[in-house]
C-alpha cells in the first residue's frame, strides 16, 4: 500500500492566520479536513505532511507528524491546497489532475524531503509524462478566503455523500424542506428544534447536541460531540467538540472552539482552540456592498467576495462585546478586547487597543494547555515546542 503524504506548497504556506500554527491539510474545507478528504478519495491513511520548517513538531489529535528524511518510491504526494470531492478516485493512477493541474502524484523513485522544504517544487515536476493520469474532482484553494467563499458549494456536495454512511436515529425535530436530513445515532436533538433543509442537506454527527429553540439551516454540518444552541445556525461546517450559541452563518469552525454566547458571526473561519467572548460580533458586509479587502502576507488584497467576516487564528481570543470589521484577520494566539481592533492583528498580540503588547510565550503556552485540558486534550511536549516555534516566528523573537 502506498503511503500518503500531504504537501504544503509555497502558496499554502502564505495562508495566514492559519499557516503559522498548522499545515494546510489540517484545515477544514467543506465538511471535513483536507487530510480526511484525501484519505477518503484515495482510500489511504495519511502517513505524514511536508510543510514549513516551523511546523516540524506539529502534534494534534490524530494528525500525522511531519514527514522526514526520504519519501519512498511509490509514495503518493498530494497537494494540501486541493480538496478532493468525497468520492473514490482511480486507485490505479499514478497522477491525479484537476483543472489542468496535478493534484497528486505517485513517486517514481525515492524523494528526499529536503527537495520539498521550501514549497517551490511543483508536483508537475515529479510526474512521469508517460504515467497513467486520472481526473479527480474537487476544489483548489487558491487563496485563504476560498475556504469561506466555496463553503456552501462544498457542503452541498459533501453532505449527501456523508449522510447515507451514518447509522440514523429518530430525532423528532420539525423538518422543513426537501433536502435530506441525517442525524447519526448517538446525537441528541431536543424538542422544539427546527431542521430547515429548504436550501440544503443537514448532517448531525454522533454525540452532538442541538438544544431546544435552535434552527439549523442547510447545507449544514455539525460535528461529533459539538453543542449548538438557541439561535439560527446556517450554512456552516462545525467541527468536533465545538460550542456554538447565537447566530452564525456561512462559517467554518475547525473544532474545539467556543462561541458560547450571543453575537453574530458570519462568513468567518474559526481556527482550533478559539474562544469568543460574549457578544463578539463580526461584520461580513460593507455598507457600500462592495467587495472585501483582506490583509495577506503579500499585502492587502481584494478578495472579490461581497461577504467576508473574520479569520480567527488558532488559540485566538476576544473579550466581551468586541466588534470586528469586515475582512479582519486575527492572528494566532492573539488576545484582544475593549476596542474594535484594526483589520490585521499580529499573532500573539495582547491588549485593549493598538499598538498591542506581545503575549508572553510562557503564559501563552500555559493558558493553551489549560484550555485544551478542559476538552480532555493534553498539550504534549512536541505540541508545546511547536507553539513556541510559532510564537518565535510570529513575533520575531
UniProtKB/TrEMBL annotation:
Transmembrane segments annotated in the record for this chain: none
Keyword Transit peptide among UniProt keywords: no
Entry GO MF terms: acyltransferase activity; nucleotidyltransferase activity
Domain of life, per lineage: Bacteria
Record flagged with keyword Transferase: yes
Keywords: Acyltransferase, Transferase
A Pfam family reported for this protein in Swiss-Prot or TrEMBL: NTP_transf_4
Cited PANTHER family: NUCLEOTIDYL TRANSFERASE, TRANSFERASE HEXAPEPTIDE REPEAT CONTAINING PROTEIN
The protein's name: UDP-N-acetylglucosamine diphosphorylase/glucosamine-1-phosphate N-acetyltransferase
Organism listed in the record: Roseisolibacter agri
Organism ancestry: Bacteria, Pseudomonadati, Gemmatimonadota, Gemmatimonadia, Gemmatimonadales
Amino acid at each position: 500500500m502506498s503511503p500518503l503524504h500531504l504537501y504544503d506548497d509555497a502558496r499554502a504556506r502564505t495562508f495566514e492566520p492559519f499557516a503559522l500554527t498548522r499545515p494546510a491539510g489540517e484545515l477544514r474545507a467543506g465538511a471535513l479536513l483536507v487530510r480526511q478528504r484525501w484519505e477518503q478519495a484515495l482510500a489511504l491513511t495519511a502517513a505524514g505532511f511536508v510543510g514549513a520548517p516551523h511546523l516540524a513538531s506539529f502534534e494534534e489529535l490524530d494528525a500525522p507528524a511531519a514527514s522526514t528524511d526520504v519519501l519512498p518510491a511509490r509514495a503518493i504526494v498530494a497537494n494540501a491546497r486541493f480538496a478532493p470531492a468525497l468520492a473514490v478516485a482511480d486507485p490505479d493512477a499514478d497522477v491525479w489532475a484537476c483543472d489542468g493541474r496535478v493534484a497528486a502524484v505517485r513517486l517514481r523513485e525515492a524523494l528526499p524531503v529536503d527537495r520539498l522544504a521550501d514549497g517551490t517544487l511543483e508536483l508537475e515536476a515529479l510526474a512521469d509524462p508517460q504515467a497513467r493520469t486520472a481526473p479527480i474532482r474537487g476544489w483548489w484553494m487558491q487563496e485563504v478566503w476560498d475556504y469561506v467563499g466555496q463553503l456552501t458549494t462544498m457542503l452541498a456536495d459533501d453532505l449527501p455523500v456523508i449522510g447515507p454512511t451514518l447509522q440514523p436515529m429518530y430525532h423528532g425535530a420539525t423538518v422543513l424542506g426537501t433536502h435530506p436530513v441525517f442525524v447519526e445515532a448517538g446525537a441528541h436533538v431536543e424538542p422544539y428544534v427546527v431542521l430547515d433543509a429548504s436550501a440544503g442537506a443537514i448532517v448531525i454527527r454522533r454525540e452532538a447536541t442541538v438544544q431546544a429553540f435552535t434552527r439549523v439551516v442547510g447545507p449544514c454540518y455539525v460535528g461529533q460531540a459539538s453543542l449548538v444552541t438557541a439561535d439560527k445556525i446556517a450554512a456552516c461546517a462545525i467541527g468536533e467538540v465545538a460550542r456554538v450559541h447565537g447566530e452564525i452563518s456561512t462559517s467554518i469552525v475547525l473544532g474545539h472552539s467556543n462561541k458560547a454566547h450571543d453575537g453574530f458571526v458570519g462568513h468567518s473561519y474559526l481556527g482550533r482552540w478559539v474562544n469568543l467572548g460574549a457578544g463578539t460580533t463580526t461584520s461580513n458586509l460593507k455598507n457600500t456592498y462592495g467587495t472585501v479587502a483582506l490583509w495577506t502576507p503579500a499585502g492587502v488584497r481584494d478578495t472579490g467576495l461581497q461577504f467576508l467576516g473574520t479569520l480567527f487564528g488558532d488559540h485566538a481570543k476576544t473579550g466581551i462585546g468586541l466588534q470586528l470589521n469586515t475582512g479582519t484577520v486575527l492572528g494566532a494566539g492573539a488576545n484582544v478586547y475593549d476596542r474594535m481592533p484594526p483589520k490585521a492583528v499580529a499573532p500573539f498580540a495582547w491588549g485593549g487597543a493598538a499598538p498591542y503588547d506581545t503575549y508572553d510565550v510562557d503564559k501563552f503556552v500555559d493558558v493553551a494547555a489549560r484550555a485544551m485540558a478542559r476538552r480532555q486534550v493534553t498539550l504534549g511536549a512536541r505540541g508545546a515546542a511547536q507553539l513556541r516555534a510559532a510564537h518565535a516566528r510570529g513575533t520575531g523573537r
